[in-house]
Write a structure and sequence with these properties.
alpha+beta, 2 domains, 4-stranded mixed β-sheet, 8 strands, Immunoglobulin-like, 4-stranded antiparallel β-sheet, single chain
Amino acid sequence: MFSHWVTLWFTVVGEALLAYLLILNTLYLVFAIISFFELQRHRRRWTARDLDVIVRSPLVLTRTVRYRRIAGEPVESDSTTDIGGVVRNTSGEPVAGASLVLEGSAREPVFTNVLGQYLISAVARGALRVRVTPPGGKARAVALNVPAASYDIILE
């Protein structure tokens, strides 16, 4: 008789625990589905317009790395510059989708965005030539000096 009550108690407790876990799992699943759709509803792409910042000067960033020997003798400094500007046609309109390639470099081409803006990273100081190819147009070589006041390019 005693073993019958123990078996019955374990059966009832086991079924209650199973029901509790089933309800908990269902609530978790419902919460996950609601969260997914809320994230999809609120997801959007951030753009530069979200910052409400208008930059009217050329992008010129310089990063300089200096090395020193333990004895204190200076070593030549090595610096690179990130250059950026706008590619425009002769009427002053930005050229979107133009490719820019540093001549004599094995780098991948850089493309202008819809506003004609580009950014080339880690450019050595001095004179360089950039081959600019507008979409569906001829490639043109443009000479630039780094550093400079502006890196805007006008295609003729």
